[in-house]
Each structure stands twice: as structure tokens, then as C-alpha cells.
Amino acid sequence: MNNNSNDDCSLKVDIPIEWLLILAVHGNMGDGEIPDIMKRWAKDLLIEFGYESEYTKRQEERLLALTNRLKNVLGDAEASKAIGHINRAIGNMNSSLKDDAK
Predict the structure, then answer these.
(1) 55: Cβ–Cβ under 8 A, 6 or more apart, which residues?
(2) How far is CA 65 from the centre of its chain?
(3) Averaged confidence pLDDT in the chain
(4) Is 34 helix (H, G, I), strand (E, B) or coil?
(5) If both were cysteines, with which of 9, 37, 70, 93 could 79 make a disulfide (CB 3.0 to 4.6 Å apart)?
(6) C-alpha 53: how far from chain center
(7) pLDDT tens-digit readout, 18-66
(8) Once rounded to an integer, what is the mean pLDDT over residues 3-21?
């Protein structure tokens, strides 16, 4: 153990890009929810290091998989209704945020 009085301390950790992609894209990993701050941190790192397109691709794949599971459970018609409601809610939320920013 180093007992230097130097308060400047740093730690370098090598994290594989694949792990960052998993962390940034997936919410519920089984036993528990990944804290939003960790997902945001991983996403920001991916964007910073030029992996935004891979992140976006993984997000789209995840959304498609979730949509397909929803269709398998509810059927196409009911799933389409649910997705429509979700998209409208997101659109309303985005509009509200834009209005608040003005």
C-alpha cells in the first residue's frame, strides 16, 4: 500500500466494448435492474469512443425482440395497439420536454 499524501488518485480499468454495449442496451438483466446512471455512463462512453452506430443497432435489435415477444403474447392487433399507445406517450413526453425547454 502506498501512503503518499498525494490526493490525486486514478484508476484505469479496461472494459471490453461488448460489455459496455450490454450494459448500455439492456435494462433488466434477470435478477435486478441496472441503475440508469450505469446505463447512461456506458452509453456515453460508447458514443465518446465512436461506437454510437453499434449502440443504435443493438437498441433497434432489442426493441424488435421486445416487440416480437409482445406480439407472441398479445397477438398482432393488441400488440399494435399497445405499441401505438406507448409511441404516443413518448411523443407527448418529448413535446412536453421541448415546451419546458423554451
Answers:
(1) 21, 24, 25, 43, 46, 47
(2) 15
(3) 83
(4) coil
(5) 70
(6) 13
(7) 989 988 887 655 555 677 788 889 999 999 999 999 999 999 998 899 8
(8) 77
CB-based burial label for 70 (10 Å; 0-12, 13-18, 19+): middle
Strand partners, 33: 28
Distance of CA 38 to the CA centre of its chain: 9
CB neighbours of 62 closer than 8 A, spacing ≥ 6?
Answer: 25, 26
Report residue 29 as a C-alpha cell: 438483466
Any idea how long the chain is? Answer: 102
pLDDT of 5 above 60? no
C-alpha span between 87 and 77 (Å, rounded): 15
The grid coordinates of residue 33 equal: 435492474
Burial of 41 by CB count in 10 Å (0-12 exposed, 13-18 middle, 19+ buried)? middle
Give the C-alpha separation, 21 to 51, whole Å.
9
Q: CA 74 to CA 52: how far, in whole Å?
A: 33
Burial status of residue 46 (CB atoms within 10 A of its CB: 0-12, 13-18, 19 or more): buried
